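B., you asked whether I could sanity-check this one before it goes into the benchmark set. Here's the sequence:
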Amino acid sequence: MTGAPLPLLLAGGMLDDVHTEIGLVTQVGLTIKHDIPIVESCSPLHENGLAIRQAAIEAATLRLCLMLMSTGARVPGAIRLRLVAGAVPRALSRSAG
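And here's what the prediction gave me:
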């Protein structure tokens, strides 16, 4: 989870923006959305005799394509939201005026 707030802090402290907060909550939801099916896929593999680590790797490999497609569809939407009028970061609006 530090992968999202760290660049925001380095870009001028945009963590107090409502759009950023919505994006972070969405990211948490997306992470949970990906984790649940991995666990559900991992359990039967482990019950069939695979070591827990190997079962987790196998389950994550099976779900990787779906995770990438879901995330890939979300990123352009987040960029678009960020570029909409009124969603200009304060750091950029201060430097422009």
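One thing to flag: The longest helix spans residues 52-83. Otherwise nothing jumped out at me.
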